[in-house]
Amino acid sequence: KQFEKKQFNHNLNLYYIGIILENRGILQIAEAVHLLKTEGYDPHFHCVGELYSDLDRKIRSLPYYKEISGNLHFYGRMNLEEGYKMAEKMDIGMCIIWRMKNSEESYPTKLFEYMRVGLPIVTSNFKLYEEVVEGNGAGICVNPMVAEEIKKAVLTIHTDVKKSELMSKNGKMAVLEKYDWASQKSLLMGVYRGLVH
């Protein structure tokens, strides 16, 4: 799909696919949704994956839950193809991961999947993620624990039509040119050849 944001409107669709755990920033995103609503936007957070009962309870016990309950959409598990079909109707891919040793030292595949479908990204401000996302002009990195930062990044992308279209193009291009298997294959083959000789 070609991401096209022809005009700015107050309706805003945020997207997440993957395992739904508290350390995936779900409560911080819910708070950012609340902040956006209080500023007159109509944000919707679409979440594909299994929602565990303890996190469901935490979401429902948020003090502003009633105000945002109609803006949170949990679809349960879907096959990847269906999930990414949904991504085509979204505005921003969310990848808010808490600071943990294993998260800071490895790439979440969803970053590349969002870029591949042309979604501008809001993600955690870890050095590894910044190199991929901000380094390629494909999104904005934020403190994953601060809902206000998440909200600001979402608005920066959402309200600037040219910026969001550019982020979409940049992300797609980076995946094709730098991170796609085909682009890595020749590098890998060179390494293997070096090991053999």
**Shape, principal axes of CA atoms:** globular
Strand content: 5-15%
Adjacency order of strands in the biggest sheet: 3-2-1-4-5-6
Q: Would you identify the regions where 5 or more consecutive residues have pLDDT less than 50?
A: none
Question: How is the biggest beta sheet arranged?
Answer: 6 strands, parallel
How many β-strands, per DSSP?
6
Helix content: 40-55%
Return the structural class. Answer: alpha/beta
Mean pLDDT: 88
First-residue to last-residue Cα separation: 44 Å
Rg, Å, rounded: 17 Å
Order of helices and strands: EHEHHEHEHHEHEHHH
Number of helices: 10
Written description of the protein model:
With 197 residues, the protein is an alpha/beta fold. It contains 10 helices and 6 strands; from the N terminus they run βαβααβαβααβαβααα. A 6-stranded parallel beta sheet has the order 3-2-1-4-5-6, with helices on both faces. Helix 1 links the parallel strand 1 (11-17) and strand 2. The protein is globular, with a radius of gyration of 17 Å. 36% of the residues are buried.
Brief digest:
The protein is an alpha/beta fold and 197 residues long. The protein has helices at residues 26-38, 53-60, 65-68, 80-87, 101-104, 109-117, 127-133, 147-159, 161-179, 181-196; strands spanning 11-17, 42-48, 72-74, 92-95, 121-124, 139-142. The mean pLDDT is 88.
Give the topology, please:
Layout: E1 11-17, H1 26-38, E2 42-48, H2 53-60, H3 65-68, E3 72-74, H4 80-87, E4 92-95, H5 101-104, H6 109-117, E5 121-124, H7 127-133, E6 139-142, H8 147-159, H9 161-179, H10 181-196
Parallel strand pairs: 1-2, 1-4, 2-3, 4-5, 5-6
Helix pairs in contact: 1-8, 6-9, 9-10
